[in-house]
């Protein structure tokens, strides 16, 4: 049987166009955290879509942007090395914003990856009128020759099956699946937990604070006597003033963060969780090669 398709697909686009939300919607599970803050995604996260006739491995990448810090530069080079390896690139533009210089910049970069097939995805069509969507499809079609142009909404589940089968069709045939049938991601447990915590902190913080956040896990300990898992996490910020904001009056904010993050973590682990989050200052870590290394970038 040679009609099983399997391969790697990456969604690219400006920050905040809905790449992570789309990844989660296609996988059917939260493998990538999302937020309304630009540049939420910092790693290439793999989400795996299983179908009878194929396996789609989605590599979620940070949004491409002009870097302002060393972290920004590392994120951009992560995108570049990821795109060099994928079979299909899905270029995402939102239906509710006109194509601008940021989109053109990314579209031009796609020439550097001749091996990958290219499809355009118009995202968030639930937010725009039929006419606006039609105009956006036309504008996108003028950027280059695409294998397909597909309008979707990840939050309203519009055309997601169409997108999956289009992507599947463009993947190479494979003698066997690349991942086991029950895998939804290749992210490790610690990384997924850290990301859930970062997502919870991102809710409600503003300005440059979202970029200053990093989370690491010291320990995950199963208790012998009870069905509880103890998780010890560190939340890094860059300045003392940010530490105060994140902790909140009398620790109120950080308690809320813990309660919010515990929900997806307990779902993931299938047990009750005691979550300890210690807030620490790592001064200007986004610009410091040593600290970036320690935080996993
Ligand atoms: N209305 C609507 N909102 C969406 C849709 N998809 C994503 N969003 C919202 O758009 C925002 C950004 O979504 P993300 O998935 O985090 O965007 P991203 O492109 O991965 O962003 P970065 O990680 O910054 O690159 C979030 O607030 C989402 O809820 C959609 O189909 N419809």
Automatic annotation (TrEMBL):
Residue ranges of domain KH type-2 in the record: 205-283
UniProt xrefs under NCBIfam families: era, PRK00089.1, small_GTP
The keyword rRNA-binding is assigned to this record: yes
Keywords of the record: Cell membrane, Cytoplasm, GTP-binding, Membrane, Nucleotide-binding, Ribosome biogenesis, RNA-binding, rRNA-binding
Highest taxon above the source species: Bacteria
Region listing for G5, in residue ranges: 152-154
Binding site for GTP: 13-20, 60-64, 123-126
Region (G2): 39-43
Provenance organism: Leifsonia poae
Chain intervals for the UniProt region annotation (G3): 60-63
Reported function: An essential GTPase that binds both GDP and GTP, with rapid nucleotide exchange. Plays a role in 16S rRNA processing and 30S ribosomal subunit biogenesis and possibly also in cell cycle regulation and energy metabolism.
Protein name, entry field: GTPase Era
Localisation per UniProt entry: Cytoplasm; Cell membrane
Family: Belongs to the TRAFAC class TrmE-Era-EngA-EngB-Septin-like GTPase superfamily. Era GTPase family.
Stretches the record annotates as G1: 13-20
GO MF annotation, one: small ribosomal subunit rRNA binding
Cellular component, GO annotation: cytosol; plasma membrane
UniProt cross-references to PROSITE patterns, sorted A to Z: G_ERA, KH_TYPE_2
Era-type G domain mapped to chain residues: 5-173
Subunit description: Monomer.
Region feature G4, mapped onto this chain: 123-126
């Amino acid at each position: 049987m040679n009609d099983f398709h399997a391969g790697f697909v990456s969604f690219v686009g400006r920050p905040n166009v809905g790449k992570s939300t789309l990844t989660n919607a296609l996988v059917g599970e939260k493998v990538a955290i999302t937020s309304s803050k630009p540049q939420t995604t910092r790693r290439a996260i793999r989400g795996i879509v299983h179908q009878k006739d194929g396996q789609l491995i989605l590599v979620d990448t940070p949004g491409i942007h002009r870097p302002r810090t060393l972290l920004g530069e590392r994120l951009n080079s992560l995108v570049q090395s990821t795109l060099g390896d994928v079979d299909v690139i899905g270029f995402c533009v939102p239906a509710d914003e006109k194509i601008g210089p940021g989109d053109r910049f990314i579209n031009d970069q796609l020439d550097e990856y001749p091996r990958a097939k290219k499809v355009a995805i118009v995202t968030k069509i639930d937010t725009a009128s039929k006419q606006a969507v039609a105009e956006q499809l036309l504008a996108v079609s003028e950027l280059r020759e695409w294998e397909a142009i597909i309008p979707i909404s990840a939050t309203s589940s519009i055309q997601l099956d169409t997108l999956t089968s289009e992507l599947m069709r463009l993947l190479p045939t494979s003698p066997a699946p690349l991942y086991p049938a029950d895998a939804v991601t290749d992210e490790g447990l610690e990384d997924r937990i850290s990301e859930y915590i970062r997502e919870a902190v991102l809710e409600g913080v503003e300005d440059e604070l979202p970029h200053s956040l990093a989370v690491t896990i010291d320990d995950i300990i199963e208790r012998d006597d009870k069905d509880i898992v103890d998780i010890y996490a560190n939340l890094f910020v860059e300045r003392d003033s940010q530490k105060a904001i994140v902790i909140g009056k009398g620790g109120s904010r950080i308690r809320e963060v813990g309660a919010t993050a515990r929900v997806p973590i307990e779902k993931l682990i299938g047990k009750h969780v005691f979550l300890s989050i210690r807030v620490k200052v790592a001064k200007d870590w986004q610009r410091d090669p040593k600290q970036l290394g320690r935080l996993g970038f």
